[in-house]
Amino acid sequence: MEEPHVASPKTARCRICDEATSPSFDALVLGRHRVGYHTCGSCGFLQTDEPFWLKEAYAAPIASVDVGLLSRNAANADATSLLIDRLLPQAERFLDHGGGYGIFTRMMRDRGYAFLHHDPHCENLFAPQHGCQPQAFDRAFDLTTAWEVFEHLVDPVATAREVLGFSRVLLFSTVLQPAAEIRSAEDWWYLVPETGQHVGFYTVDALHRLAERCGACLRSDGTNLHTLSREPLPRDPFASAPPTPRGPGRRSLLDADFADAMTRLRLRQAEPIGAATKPRQITRPSREAPSAKRLPGAGRSAPA
C-alpha cells in the first residue's frame, strides 16, 4: 500500500528570489497527497513543497475542471489584439508559449496576427500547421504570450529568461494573490489542489523580483495580466478600456460550471480506490455568477 506523503515543515528557498520561506498551511493535493505551502518572507511568493506529483497531475495536460478555457482564450485574444495595436503596430512575429490545444493561436491567426504555437506537453489540435520550436528561429519574436503558464512552473525564473532570450516582450497571465492572508486551501479558489497543477502563486513584489532576476521591465494590471520586456514599453499596456457588452439579460455560466466540475472531481476522489464508478446526482450551484470583463480588441483586416 502506498504510504501517504506528509507535508514538509522544512524551510525552503523561494523559487523567485531565493530567500527563505516559512510554512503557511497544508492541503490535500490530487485527493491523496498531503502537501505543504510555503510563503516567502521577502517577496510574498507562495509555493508548494517540491512537486513530486506532477507526472500524475499531468496525465491529462488540461485539467477537467478548466471550464473557462474557451472564454479565457476569447478574452486573451481581445487583450492581446489591443496591446499589439496600441504598442506594437509594426510587429509581425508572435508566439504562444505553452499554448495547449492551439485555440489562442487559431483565434489570433483568424484576426490576422501571425501567431505560432509551442507546447511540447499538449497536442496542438487547432493550429497543427503552425507549431514551432522557438529556439530554431534566427530572429526574435516581437511578442510571446504565456497564458496560465507561470503558476505551473517549478522554475519560473529559468522559463522567463528563456522566453526573453527569443522574444522582445512576454505577455502572460497568472492571478495575483488576494489582499487577505491565505491560511488554508479553502481561502482562495486559484490554489485548486485537487488538480495538482498549480505550484506557485505570485504577488506584485514577486513579479518585480522576477523581472529583476531576468533583467527585464515589468508592467502589471495588478490582477492577472503582466508583461516582461527587454526594453521599457512606451506606455501602460493595460490602460482601461470599456468592456465588450453582453447580450441583454444574460450572465456567464462559467462560475457555476466551475463549481459543478469541482464537485464532480471531489466526488471521484472520495471514491475508494478500485470502486466502480456510479452515476451521481449532482446538486447544481446557483447560476447567479458575475460576468467576466473582457477587453475589446481590433482585429486586422486580412486573416492569415
Which properties best describe this structure?
six-stranded mixed sheet, alpha/beta, Methyltransferase, 10 strands, four-stranded antiparallel sheet, SAM-dependent_MTases_sf, 16% strand, 6 helices, Rossmann fold, globular, 304 residues
Fraction in helix: 10-25%
The CA-CA distance between the termini, in Å, is: 55 Å
Mean pLDDT metric: 87
Please compute the radius of gyration using only Cα atoms. 20 Å
> Would you tell me which CATH topology of one domain applies?
Rossmann fold
InterPro entries: SAM-dependent_MTases_sf
Protein name: Methyltransferase
Structure description:
- The protein has about 300 residues and is an alpha/beta fold.
- It has a domain at about 70-175 and about 205-235: Rossmann fold, CATH 3.40.50.
- Helices cover about 25% and strands about 15% of the residues.
- The protein has 6 helices and 10 strands; from the N terminus they run βββααβαββαββαββα.
- The chain has helices at about 55, 70-85, 105-110, 155-165, 205-215, 255-270; strands at about 20-30, 35-40, 45-50, 95, 115-120, 145, 170-175, 200, 215-220, 225-230.
- Helix 2 (about 70-85) packs across helix 3 (about 105-110).
- The longest helix is centred in the first third of the chain and has 19 residues, at about 70-85.
- It starts with 20 loop residues before the first strand and ends in a 34-residue tail after the last helix.
- Residues about 245 and about 280-300 have low confidence and may be disordered.
- It holds the Pfam family Methyltransf_23.
- InterPro entries: SAM-dependent_MTases_sf (IPR029063).
